[in-house]
Each structure stands twice: as structure tokens, then as C-alpha cells.
Amino acid sequence: MTRKKTVLLICYYFPPIGGGGVPRPLKMAKYLGQFGWNVHVLTVAPAYHATLDPSLLEQIPQDVQIHRAPEWNLLPKRSAGGGSAGTTVAAAAPGVMSQAKAKLRSLLKKIKPYLLIPDDQILWYPAALKLGRELMKQQQFDMIFSTSGPVTNHLIAQKLSAEFGCQWIADFRDPWTQNMHRSGIAWREKLEEKMEQRVMRQANAITTVTASFAKNFRQKYGESIQRLELIYNGFDREDFVGLIPMHEAPQKFHAVYAGILYQKRNPRLLLRAIKQLIDEQKVDRRDLLLSFAGVFDYPGYSENRDCVEQLGLQDIVRVLGNLPHREALGLMKGADALLLIGDVTSDAGHYIPGKLYEYMGIGKPILALNKAGEATGIIQSFDLGQVADPEDFDAVKQAFYQLYQEWKQKRAQQEDQQEEQRQDYQERVKPYERKEQARQLAALMNELLGGQA
């Protein structure tokens, strides 16, 4: 009987941590076993992490072994408050201490970009490397697979691969030095260029999630990359089995956004377009509801809420705040349209938001306010909804109006027609399922080892 191969998956973000960086490593860990691979995961002990979703742990097969290394925290932890009663002098002491901690926290935030290179998670590196070495001595690993961000994951993998002679795949969910979010510190960026170059040269294969990323990597590093493969992100159909619609709005055209909004990604142009459609009597405001789950305004800002009030749209905009992942999926399931709001930066079209794949799994029409690029290309090629430039008012207005019109027409359709459309949709998006991407990774690992799946 052939020995089942074993991979060490290195990823800082892994359940019970939730968020956008988690699904790719989680789903690889979930499905690689079906393609002949044992999986060990080296991840962080999530003591300091703010976004936890323990329900995600239920998706991990029992034979996946998880190893957690602690992370040192640079910033002092905030006090939870409370304490025993004492004299007036004793009570004053914690206040002085809190002020001192606040000043220290402010100072550390300012100097952090000069200390934590290539990212904040470098503080996890020492403990993760130590545990990784112990694992490599205890277990025969055939492959190391590191996925970023954070790119610290690659530095750990690079060291273990070199020390133990194990083949290594470096997976980039986002670019590193070609990322739109850079430090702006010249000497740091030069240092990171050298760090990235070593990773690109030493990894046995580089994988990434968009054709644009792959093209940019090849243009920059040429033949120093030993092998470059594209493995898209996707969705897991099992996440949507038995999903119950939640926060529904019967008899309304219900558009939903679930995620984080901030300065360069906001719904204000869309809101103004909707207000104009109402004023022109092209849409009936009684038909409309927009639900926003997640972060509607970034802490310290109120532009989006202010816009809703200024336009007088309080009756059609519902802000739900953060929801558990399953509840957020239920919100999407109960919607008539799913909003995909992208950044307005010049290179935003190079990115495919992970949310697009989640929307594919839900199967509702998408209103994508995104710069032209791979994401809009997928939506248009597979006929998944409407697309508009997020800075083009007329295009945004027309795209929303088109989906509204389609909703009105759909209400008149028979149930059998709607079921036929749902099945057709599922067939169109099948290439983007997570299980397929795990198969692709398993095949790549087998090829690197000189065998076949």
C-alpha cells in the first residue's frame, strides 16, 4: 500500500480566527485528505486576536493535526477594567497607569512600521520556527505549503525548507512588494524587495490567485521563479447546504453587502444614484432595502451614516453590524442582489475579492462596483450580474436600475423557471469550487515529488 504523503501547512490565519484570510488554508486543510495527503497545520495560538469564529473549527477533519505557537504582543493589552475597592490614593494609581499605557501604545504604533518587518506577525516568527523545527524532527514531511498574508508565513517556511531539505510551495493570496498597501518607508521597502526575491528564488513553486498577480511576479522575477502556477480562490458548496435565509425583506428588492467599508471602498455613490432614481420615480422607494453587515463606517469616521441621513434614506438602509459567519451567509441567501464594492485605487482591478466567490456560492445576482479587471471579467463572462466603475455615477445608476428591473420581472416568473435558472447558475460557477482547488494543489505537490495523483 502506498504511503500517504504529508504536508505542513503554515498559516497565521486559521480557525478559530475568522476573516478573509482564513478560507483558503481552511479549505485546503479540509479537502487535501481526499486527494491522498495528510495535513498538519502550523498556526498561531489566537490569544490576542480580536476576530474569532469558533464555529469554523467544525469544518476541520479529525485527522488534520493542528499545532499552535504563541505570539509575542508588542502593544500592551488593554485593561478589562474592574478591580477591588481601595483608598482614594490607591484608586488613582490605576488611572495613572492607564495613561502611561495609552502613551506607550501611541508611541509603539508610531514606531511599529520601523520595527515589525515584513509585517506585524514577525513577532510570531520565533515561536513558530521553534515549533516548526520540532515538528520536522518528529514527522516526515513531504512538502511545506505556506500561504500569505502575512508574508511572515513564507519566512518560516523558507527557513524550515532550507534546514530540513523539504520541498516548499509559497502561496500568495495578495502580492508582497507589488501590493497597493505599502509602508512608504524607502529603506524598509528595499529590504522587503530582497526578502521577497529570496522567497521567489528558493521556493520550489509559487502559487497565486489571479492571472494579474502571476503576470506581475513573472515580469519582476523572470526565470528565477522555478515554477509559477495559478490556483484561484473559490467557494465551498458545502457551506451553503441547508442554509436558511435570514433578515429577509419579503416583497422588497433587497440588496446586501457583508464586509468592511472604509475611505477608498464606500457605498456613497451608489446611495446618491439610488436617491436620484427615486426622485425620478424610476424606482419606488417602498420596494427597496439595502442591508449592510460588518463595518459600515471605520472607527472614527461617519461619512457613510452621514450620507444616508443627508439623502434621507434612513428608511431603506439597514446597518446590522458584525454578524457570525453563518448568519451573514443567511443574510446573503435572503437577498435579491449582492453588492460587491471595490477600492477606487488604480490597481484595484488586479484583485479578485474573496467575497466574489462567496457570492457565487449563494447564487444571487451580483452588483459589482469595481474597477475593470479580473473580477469584473469573471462576472461578465459567466453572466453573474451587473458591473459598473465605482467612480462612474451614471454607470452605477444604470447597473442598479437594471437589477431592479430584472427583480420585478422575476417576481412574475413561475417557480420551475426560477429553479432552472438556479441550476444553470451552479453549473456556470463550478470551476471555482474549493474542492477543485485542493485537487489542483495536490496534483502540483505530487508533480514536484515526481509522482502522479
From TrEMBL:
InterPro entries reported in the protein's UniProt record: Glyco_trans_1, Glyco_trans_4-like_N
CDD domains (UniProt xref): GT4_WbuB-like (cd03794)
Domain called Glycosyl transferase family: residue spans: 252-414
Pfam families (UniProt xref): Glyco_transf_4 (PF13439), Glycos_transf_1 (PF00534)
Top-rank taxon: Bacteria
Entry GO MF terms: glycosyltransferase activity
Protein name as catalogued: Glycosyltransferase involved in cell wall biosynthesis
